[in-house]
Amino acid sequence: MPELKDISLAVNQTHIGTVKTMTDFGCYVDIGYAEDVLIPSGYMQANISNKMAIVVFVFHDDDTNRVLATNQLFKFFDETNNEYFAPKQTVNCMVWSSTELGYKVLLDNEKLGLLFHSEALAKHAIGAQFAVTIKQIREDDKIDVTQHVQSASQRKDLAAQILDDLVAHDGISSLTDKSSPEDIAFKFSVSKGAYKKAIGALFKAKKITITKDFIKLID
Questions:
Q1: Residue 95 to residue 48: CA distance in whole angstroms
Q2: Distance of alpha carbon 97 from alpha carbon 64, whole angstroms
Q3: If you write DSSP's letter for every residue of 7-68 in order, what string do you get?
Q4: Domain 152-217, CATH number (from 1.20.58.1560, 3.30.160.20, 1.10.10.10, 3.30.450.180)
Q5: Which CATH superfamily is domain 7-75 in?
Q6: For residues 195 and 158, is the Cβ–Cβ distance under 8 A?
Q7: In the chain, where are the structural domains located?
Q8: How far apart are CA 105 and CA 127, in angstroms?
């Protein structure tokens, strides 16, 4: 078993961890280093529980001279755009919190944004990472993102991806128009609706056959 790294090497970075111990002054989180890192109560989002997956930012606290963490990412990352991103730009994101409206996401490890449930392809776990598109910069300068396919060219790219995947798997795939949105999003990072349109177009072009159990490449 490799020796775990010193926790000081984790400073000024985001990490996906697991809550190990709850206390009356915060909680300790395992982020894969030699020691668990403390989230003090004042730096902790509500509804944290033991064994919960969590995204934290690790920092050095000058007042206590300790390495600490927080899952309140807004304490260290800007929630306003300040002309950093532009609409239709593709960026990487990490889910750090879930709300009734949608998912709070960290964008390119720089800014915070919101992925509404209606703009998500599937249910996402805390710590999930995937590509999104900047949907809009709101009047309050906050950032909304989407996972949905945005253009005809992107739909053509999806069809090409499906064909490439079929070629790589002996011309057959169990991912059909009956598959779950989660399975489709995991494989191609698109909505079920976009996937159904793409395989429908391939079927009309006589490039694939479709059954309830599989799709197959036509030789």
A1: 16
A2: 27
A3: GGGGTTEEEEEEEEEEETTEEEEE-SSSSPEEEEGGG--SS--TT-EEEEEEEEETTTTEEE
A4: 1.10.10.10
A5: Nucleic acid-binding proteins (2.40.50.140)
A6: yes
A7: 7-75, 90-146, 152-217
A8: 9
Q: Is residue 56 within 8 Å of residue 28, measured between CB atoms?
A: no
Per-residue pLDDT tens listing for the chain (219 residues): 456 789 989 999 999 999 999 999 999 999 999 999 999 999 998 788 899 999 999 999 999 999 999 999 999 999 999 999 999 898 999 999 999 999 999 999 999 999 999 999 888 999 999 889 999 999 999 999 998 865 555 666 888 989 999 999 999 999 998 888 878 887 887 778 888 988 999 999 999 999 989 999 997
Fold classification of 90-146 (topology level): OB fold (Dihydrolipoamide Acetyltransferase, E2P) (2.40.50)
Q: Which residue has the tokens 């007042």?
A: 63
Amino acid at 4: L
CA 14/CA 69 separation, integer angstroms: 9
Asked if the domains 90-146 and 152-217 are classified in one and the same CATH topology, the answer is no
Helix axes 152-168, 192-204, angle to 10 degrees: 70
